[in-house]
TrEMBL record:
This is Signal recognition particle subunit SRP68. Residues 628-670 are annotated as: Disordered. The gene is SRP68. It is found in: Cytoplasm; Nucleus, Nucleolus. Residues 645-660 have a biased composition (Basic and acidic residues). Signal peptide: none annotated. Transmembrane segments: none annotated. InterPro entries: SRP68, SRP68-RBD, SRP68_N_sf. Keywords: Cytoplasm, Nucleus, Ribonucleoprotein, RNA-binding, Signal recognition particle.
């Protein structure tokens, strides 16, 4: 184990600018004379001065500014040494002086801060050296920090006296500030056990004050300064990482004494029992194991255990809120998921941090600790994404948006059936009153939410171990198909509103195919109780969607058929414009009958078909009775004409032989 101390978080890293911004809005420059029993705000005074100076400069600039402020403060108190005057040793501040003027407190704080700034300036100047901080430099840093700690401890001792008029909060803040400087000095000396004792006092005090004073400055000090310092000191002291920080702080706080414990008990007694500000969270205890998909793994990291316990608590709170709230608007229902999303994200971050720490230590993937953390990572990520999907489903509305509702009632509805029916009728009327553009915009919002859900499902498929779980993979695929069907349904409705009935029919058919494919893989049904929505989709949800899609499919087919008929009717009306009704009796008048154009009057000469071709050809082959009589008469007349010509003595030339008669219109026949 390396004995080289890194840069101590507690003494070198300033608070973020956002913390200073919150503090500066609440702190004003101290007046020339501040008396009375008003709050001294020691922590705000120190934090604001640090952040204001370090925002525009470094520790040397802060040290210079503190020297000027100390001189001005002494002049206000009329205790400054005059020019060319004899220096007199300064007496310690008394409780009576503090009660008379709070500037004596500010003088002590500024003096302690100047020694801290001096130590940090020296450390920052030597931190860039490759050899590190040498022995003499480290001794100088430690001496400066110890001097500041002694000044702060003297102030805390004065405030504990009754004559000072300090409140319980003022005493706790003074003790915490003194312990903060003392812990920084011990951190530099690498005395880890005493360092843990000092920082434990800080953590217990600030945990109690963060709940009573409701101030974010205390929470920032805990999360960004004190907790990392305790964790590193515990690591150097060979304390297992599985032990929570709150438990470590409570263990090392026992030496602080009953007097300090009495002041803390006035603010929050639960802190002395559980070591954390949230007594309810600590009372339940952090879980030791985590079970997911039939696998039980041991939670070895304390931060993960605490975060996972918080997720369980928030889950119970969400269920109680939904069961007792009745009917809520989609936005109000989605807002109830914020707390559980935050806690689940904390669990994900804690797991990732634990994995990164093991990787930095060179632990291989085959190690049992790494395997347990990978399973934990999959479980907490699945939980977080599941609640994210549930929030999107809450925003979409009832039945996951399967029913065509373009809005939601803004007020809570009573449980009577009559009022629910009236609300549904009003909701449908509201949807009908919306313009087509507004309806399409509402559907686009739902499509965006469906896309977010589908992306979340895809991110779950990429988690470690999910691809090897065939049952889970099948459920995720069915869930993806279910929400794809809902997305296609929303898009088809927008096409139907825009008049694109063919596109709407194709999308509804695709949605029905997706829903039908997803139904066998989904199992379970709702028990009727209002439960928080998450990634779980039951067969009841898919069955309802399938029934709705079946009706939408028939409706879309009817709309396409009507559109086709109207299109053909309009085409026929356009092509037959000007024709009378008598010439269009073979067409049904879908567009109506023009009674002013029944027949053409006066009539016009028009060619009409009379004798088809096959009748003309048949004339050559059919023996009609009239045709036979005509041929017999012609044969009888031929001899009589020949006798008459002979009697007259005329010579008649022989008749030419009869040529074959042409058949048909074109001279050829059968």
């Amino acid at each position: 184990m390396s004995k080289i101390s890194p840069t101590p978080v507690s003494v070198l890293t300033p608070l973020p600018v956002t913390s200073w911004a919150r503090a500066s809005t609440q702190i004003t420059t101290p007046a020339t004379s501040t008396t009375g029993t008003a709050g001294m705000d020691i922590t705000k005074f120190v934090v604001s001065h640090r952040e204001k100076a370090l925002l525009y400069g470094d520790y040397s600039t802060y040290h210079t500014s503190l020297s000027k402020k100390i001189l001005n403060c002494r002049k206000k108190l009329n205790i400054a040494t005059k020019k060319r005057g004899t220096f007199h040793p300064r007496n310690q501040v008394t409780a009576e002086q503090v009660a008379e003027d709070h500037d004596y407190i500010h003088l002590q704080l500024l003096t302690a801060e100047r020694t801290w700034a001096d130590a940090m300036a020296v450390k920052a100047a030597h931190s860039v050296e490759t050899k590190g901080i040498g022995g003499k430099t480290r001794s100088h840093i430690v001496s400066r920090l110890e001097k500041g700690a002694r000044t702060a401890e003297q102030l805390a001792e004065v405030l504990t006296q009754t004559a000072s008029g300090a409140s319980s909060i003022d005493i706790l803040e003074a003790r915490a500030y003194a312990a903060l400087l003392r812990g920084a000095a011990l951190f530099e000396k690498q005395h880890w056990e005493p360092c843990l004792k000092s920082y434990s006092v800080d953590r217990i005090i600030y945990s109690a004050l963060s709940t009573s004073a409701k101030n974010d400055i205390f929470k920032d000090l805990l999360s960004e300064t004190i907790d990392p310092s305790i964790r590193y000191a515990a690591y150097q002291a060979q304390i297992p990482r599985t032990q929570p920080i709150a438990e470590i702080a409570l263990k090392y706080f026992q030496h602080a004494g009953p007097e300090l414990a009495a002041h803390i008990e006035k603010q929050n007694p639960a802190v002395l029992q559980h070591g954390d500000a949230d007594a309810k969270q600590g009372a339940g205890g952090a879980p030791a194991t985590l079970t997911w998909r039939g696998r039980e793994v041991k939670i070895e990291d304390a931060a993960i255990a605490i975060a996972w316990a918080a997720v369980g608590a928030e889950k119970a709170k969400l269920a109680d809120k939904l069961s007792s709230a009745g009917s809520l608007a989609p936005r109000e229902l989605a807002g109830a998921y914020d707390d559980i999303l935050v806690t689940s994200q904390d669990a994900v971050d804690a797991t990732k941090q634990a994995i990164d720490e093991l990787k930095s230590e060179g632990v291989p993937q085959s190690d049992s600790r790494m395997q347990s953390l990978q399973i934990t990572r999959t479980a907490v990520n699945f939980e977080m994404i599941s609640w994210r999907i549930g929030r999107n489903r809450a925003l979409i509305g009832q039945d996951d948006g399967a029913r065509l509702n373009f809005g939601a009632p803004s007020k809570k509805k009573k449980k009577q059936e009559q009022e629910q029916e009236q609300a549904e009728e009003a909701l449908e009327q509201k949807g009908r009153d919306l313009t087509p553009g507004r309806q399409i915009a509402k559907l686009k919002e739902k499509v965006v939410l469906y896309d977010g859900i589908l992306q979340s499902v895809e991110s779950i498929k990429e988690l470690p171990g999910v691809a090897n779980d065939q049952e889970l993979s099948a459920q995720l695929e069915a869930t993806s198909q279910y929400f794809t069907a809902l997305k296609c349904l929303a898009i088809s409705r927008s096409h139907a509103i825009a008049g694109n009935t063919v596109n709407a029919l194709a999308l509804v058919k695709h949605a029905l195919d997706q829903c039908t494919a997803a139904l066998p893989a989904l199992s379970g049904s709702d028990d009727g109780k209002p439960a928080p929505r998450n990634i779980q989709v039951t067969s009841q949800h898919a069955g309802l969607l399938r029934d709705i899609l079946g009706g939408e499919l028939q409706r879309s087919r009817a709309l396409v058929e009507i559109h086709s008929l109207n299109k053909s009717a309009s085409a026929s009306q356009t092509g037959g414009a000007g024709k009378p009704l008598s010439s269009q009796l073979f067409n049904y008048p879908t567009g109506g009958v023009d009674l002013n154009n029944i027949v053409t009057y006066p009539p016009q000469l028009e060619p009409i078909p009379v004798k088809p071709l096959f009748l003309d050809v048949a004339w050559n082959y059919i023996e009609y009775p009239a045709k036979q009589q005509q041929q017999q008469q012609q044969q009888q007349q031929r001899p009589a004409a020949a006798v008459q010509d002979k009697s007259k003595g005329t010579k008649k030339e022989p008749e030419p032989e009869a040529k074959p008669q042409k058949r048909g219109w074109f001279g050829f026949g059968r």
